[in-house]
């Protein structure tokens, strides 16, 4: 029954997502949700690493930018078709992630976070200063939209929405399969105790590197989709401000949960869009909110909801158990 309820809820959400552009027929809302889905893909990448292995990378805005610029350069300067350019952009990001991960994962805890923060900033500087390749502060203009697939075109806001939604669903399904596989249990073992994982024969370096490369792949995919959707990119997409936004989406939604990245991203993107008139005071608003959530709900919205359901189920189970009365 619980499996059926969960499956029914997921099907209902999926159907709602499909019907959303048809119900509201508002390009602004469709555009906002499409961007939210793209950011959610990047957040899922961070969550795979931080939530399931315990290694918090602060370089993923840089990997997001690598994916975006790779697709932009391949389609604008190399005049490549969108679909092979998308594949190459993800592979380029993964290769860079592999090279960085080999060095970064020799550090642990806050040293790893500091190292990746520096790497992310270096990526931002390279994009900003390499004027001949990236266009520098001018950025890249005129990035191609996704190419047609037979009779299917991606010129309207609705078609791009459905394309990004498809990628998001595939990413969630892939991460679900990873988390519930032997590889996912290995990631959790490393998160819980890396020393204990080593004693039982787990190759921690190999598995951490696998998680790191996969997470950069998803960040690169999100960046490439972002570039094709917005059609213009600048070095700011690799800045620490973007990294802060991605982390905020993850922490608010729930780190180490499958629904957390999507919940946090949708909630905060929609909230920030409705508070655009307070844009100058954005950090003053979100800063205290994030602090309170970390203090009182360290597992985020999704994690706290699942904890509440588990506690309620346990309490119900205890009530239904027969009470023994001691005689004496």
From TrEMBL:
It comes from Peribacillus psychrosaccharolyticus (Bacillus psychrosaccharolyticus). The chain crosses the membrane at residues 35-51, 58-76, 82-104, 111-127, 161-179, 209-234, 246-271, 283-301. The keyword Transmembrane applies. GO terms for cellular component: plasma membrane. It is found in: Cell membrane. Its main location: membrane. It is a multi-pass membrane protein. One of its GO terms (molecular function) is branched-chain amino acid transmembrane transporter activity. This is Branched-chain amino acid ABC transporter permease. InterPro entries: ABC_transp_permease, LivM-like. Keywords: Cell membrane, Membrane, Transmembrane, Transmembrane helix.
